[in-house]
Amino acid sequence: MEQDMAGATRVVALGNDGDGIAETPAGRIFVPGAVPGDVVALGAAHGTHATLDRIITPGPDRVTPPCALFGQCGGCRVQQMALPALLAWKAGRVLDALHRAGFATIPTPATVQVAPQGRRRVDLAFRREGRRIVLGLHRRRGDVVDMTACTLLDPALFALLSPLRDMLHSLPGVHAGGDLQINMLDSGPDLLITMDGTPDANDRRILAQFSKAHGIPRISLGGTPPETLALNGPVFHHFDGVRVTPPPGAFLQPARRGEDAIRDAVLAALPTKGLKAGIIELYAGCGTLSFALAAHAKVLAYEGDRAALACLKQASGGTRVLPALRDLNRQPVMAAELAKAAAVVLDPPHAGAGAQMAQIVAGKPRHVIYVSCNPAALQRDLAPLQQLGYRLEHLTVIDQFLWSTEVEAVCVLKLPGAGKNHRR
Questions:
Q1: Most C-beta atoms within 10 A of its C-beta, which of 164, 199, 360, 385?
Q2: What stretches of 200-339 adopt beta strand conformation (E)?
Q3: CA atoms in the 13 A half-sphere facing the CB of 309
Q4: Which pLDDT value is given to residue 7?
């Protein structure tokens, strides 16, 4: 039953979902919109959550949200918190996960935070509302909010949204709405559209005209596999000077600065000796790290997505990247192979490395470089390595999802005193 909570309450922390945490006589209460250090009056409460009635005294890290849509658009959860404090909180989440994994000694993390308006990848929804198209992100557990302002997106990407609304409104194949993914590749915007109708010749004509008018090399229709609806030039992107042709909807790090920070941390962690044994890269994608790694050693690059693997294969000629198709959860790279590598580099999906982690544990490669996008999966995956005696040698925390609760980390682990398979 809802109840009113009167009186001043201090917010003492931030929860994993970005809600403030207040300790009250009734127990711990989560308060959306609150910042640690705030003294607040709580409104209606239900269970462990309460609304923020008013701020009595703002905390030292509270700021005015920079976006006019904050509180409506679901893209940014914590714009009311200063960016340096938010980065410190995200680093704390990673440190807490590593402590829970059992690491008693954790190096002071290097930290990187990207600048606003650097986001080059976005997944949007669009809906017909009367005579217009609403295009943007969903409000928290709600409808689509029209993205008329954004402090996250690359300005060139944001400028495309207005003409996109007009174009989507004119498509006969769009009945109620759909979804749109945009990747800003080096060749220009790459669009993947999912609509609730079947595109006909008129849709294709409209999309081809739009593609030409706005310098969009490719527009594809979502499906398995995606279908190219308009092609207006070559589609390409570069990873460390190597030109690749990403498939529609390919994974791309959301910010170039974030991608650079991950790559730099991984390269700095490579062993200085024994690289003739080669590097095993797991979850290689289209080659975000592969070609940079190949400047130092032969890279056996495993990827489970066929389209991404085809992209990697096409670009790998003349390099030391050896792509291989493998569903790493159903058919992990085995321990014996992992044990021979000079280093194992993995950038698993949000859920973590799954069955592949058991083979890493069994193989005991001396050097493991783990790129994480989820502290919970990081804790689960690294706990067995800690139990084997792996040391955490270096840690980099990267905030490239500004004003969100998402955080990435590069963890560098080494197994001291490894056996004969690891002698260099």
A1: 360
A2: 218-221, 227-231, 237-239, 242-244, 279-282, 299-303, 321-325
A3: 16
A4: 80
The answer to whether 373 is a known catalytic residue is yes
pLDDT in tens, 334-369: 999 999 999 999 999 999 999 999 999 999 999 999
pLDDT in tens, 85-117: 999 999 999 999 999 999 999 999 999 999 999
| pLDDT tens digits for range 269-295 | 999 999 999 999 999 999 999 999 999
Q: Retrieve residue 369's tokens.
A: 């470089």
| Rounded Cα gap, residues 43 and 141, in angstroms | 20
Task: State the pLDDT confidence band at 24, using cuts at 50, 70 and 90.
Answer: confident
What's the pLDDT score for residue 25? 85
C-alpha span between 145 and 127 (Å, rounded): 10
Q: Where are the alpha helices (DSSP H) in 242-397?
A: 256-268, 290-294, 306-315, 335-340, 355-363, 375-388
User: 72: how many CB neighbours lie within 10 A of its CB?
Assistant: 15
Binding residues for S-adenosyl-L-methionine: 253, 283, 303, 347
E strands, 103-174, are 110-113, 121-129, 132-138, 144-146
Binding-site residue set: 253, 283, 303, 347
C-alpha angle 54-55-60 in degrees, rounded to nearest 5: 160
Question: pTM for the complete prediction?
Answer: 0.94
| From 67, 286, 311, 373, active-site residue | 373
Task: Give the residue among 420, 255, 402 at the shortest CA–CA distance from 340.
Answer: 420
Strands of the sheet with 227-231, listed across from one edge: 144-146, 132-138, 121-129, 177-185, 188-195, 218-221, 227-231
Does 183 score more than 90 pLDDT?
A: yes
- Regarding beta strands 132-138 and 121-129, do their DSSP bridges make them parallel or antiparallel, or are they unpaired? antiparallel
